[in-house]
Specification:
Elements lengths: L4 E3 L2 E4 L4 E3 L7 E3 L14 E5 L3 H8 L4 E4 L4 E4 L2 E7 L7 E7 L2 E5 L21 E6 L11 H17 L3 E5 L5 H8 L7 E3 L1 H12 L8 E2 L13 E4 L15 E6 L8 H4 L4 E3 L7 H11 L3 E7 L1 H10 L3 E4 L7 H4 L6 H12 L1
Parallel strand pairs: 3-4, 4-5, 5-6, 10-11, 11-18, 12-15, 12-16, 13-14, 13-15, 16-17, 18-19
Antiparallel strand pairs: 1-2, 2-3, 7-8, 8-9, 9-10
Length: 348
């Protein structure tokens, strides 16, 4: 039997009786990161990186959570588990699993570009590699982050010069903080949606440095918004909450902005191609860096991507999972606390 198998609850290691990112409740869960499709409520015991733990606890509540440092080895019934930087969001990890010379890596979600905010991706050698394929088509190719944020700041600057409010959307955990970190605060003041500011507070409490932000509340005078920028969740766009900003320009930051029509469907005037997942070249580079011959393709363009890998000589198979990549992370349907924050924001 392989060291890792896939069943109706998730990625399973029978030898250690643990699951990686299970989508149904299990006794023991190893969690790659805090996004809702990978970190779910209901497990008896959780294991994550120390950096991921505060957000996981904030989102899931009072859970039994144990933490490890990057590279620290946790041995369970002879199986060695270790967490290694995935470069996706703060605290995100790939999980390496080893037993009697058989080595697997479950990558969760990951990106190769160093965003300067989370721990940079580290390739891990293995024979079996489980990869996402959220953007597993050749059309998805990101421009360097520096160029992208120059474009975002130019848009904000132009919007401010027109006396309008700039609104840019990104999911509350990961994308929002990356946007904040790239904004030029000399242009104006940064306001944040409640769900984003709650996440910011959790991250700041663990020592993560973010620029100064102000929570959007009913106490803020509407006249203060023009010329400044609001970082909001995608689910807030089209809601009554947006009306308080008056004459505004709305931008969406997502890898899906590559596609024609995506901006219109998000109710945005502008689209910026910004993703915390790999583009096509980075997916191929990451797989090559592992040295693995056996590739297991999860969420995204699984059929197309696995077919391409087989044509390149890999033993690649596609798998059905409950992971959704950036489709889940845009949080228009998201986690329970995000829904509550959207409801509260609509009242403010």
């Amino acid at each position: 039997m392989p060291l890792l198998t896939f069943n109706d609850r998730g990625i399973y290691c029978a030898r250690a009786d643990v699951y990686i990112d299970p989508w149904k409740p299990v006794p023991r869960a190893l969690i790659t990161h805090g996004h809702a499709d990978h970190s779910r409520w209901g497990n008896d015991h959780y294991l994550s990186t120390r950096l991921a733990a505060p957000v996981i606890k904030y989102r899931l509540g009072d859970i039994d959570l144990e933490t490890v440092e990057y590279g620290e080895v946790k041995t369970i019934n002879g199986v060695k588990f270790s967490f290694h930087p995935a470069g996706h969001i703060i605290g995100s990890a790939q999980i390496r699993v080893e037993y009697k010379g058989e080595i697997w890596v479950a990558s969760g979600d990951y990106k190769l570009e160093d965003d300067g905010l989370c721990q940079p991706y580290e390739p891990v050698q293995c024979q079996h590699f489980i990869t996402e394929s959220t953007f597993g088509l050749p059309v998805y190719r990101w421009i360097p982050q520096e160029e992208l944020f120059a474009d975002i700041n130019d848009w904000w600057r132009a919007t401010a010069a027109e006396g309008r409010t700039a609104i840019i959307t990104g999911y509350a955990l990961g994308k929002a903080q990356r946007i904040l970190d790239g904004l030029d605060t000399s242009i104006g003041k940064i306001y944040t949606h409640g769900a984003i500011e709650n996440t910011n507070e959790v991250l700041r409490a663990q020592g993560i440095k973010l620029p100064d932000t102000t929570r959007v509340t009913r106490e803020v005078n509407k006249k203060e918004y023009p010329g400044n920028i609001v970082v909001a969740t995608p689910g807030a766009i089209g809601q009554p909450w947006v009306k308080k900003f008056g004459n505004a320009s709305v931008a969406a930051a997502s890898g899906w902005m590559t596609l024609r029509g995506a901006r219109r469907r998000r109710g945005a005037d502008r689209g910026f191609v910004l993703s915390d997942h790999c583009d096509w070249p980075s997916l191929l580079e990451a797989i090559d860096l592992t040295g693995a011959d056996n590739i297991y393709v999860t969420h995204g363009y699984t059929a197309i991507f696995s077919k391409y890998l087989r044509e390149q000589g890999y033993n690649a198979v596609e798998l059905e999972t409950d992971y959704e990549g950036e489709l889940a992370e845009i949080e228009t349907k998201g986690s329970e606390e995000t829904s509550k924050e959207n409801a509260l924001a609509d009242e403010e």
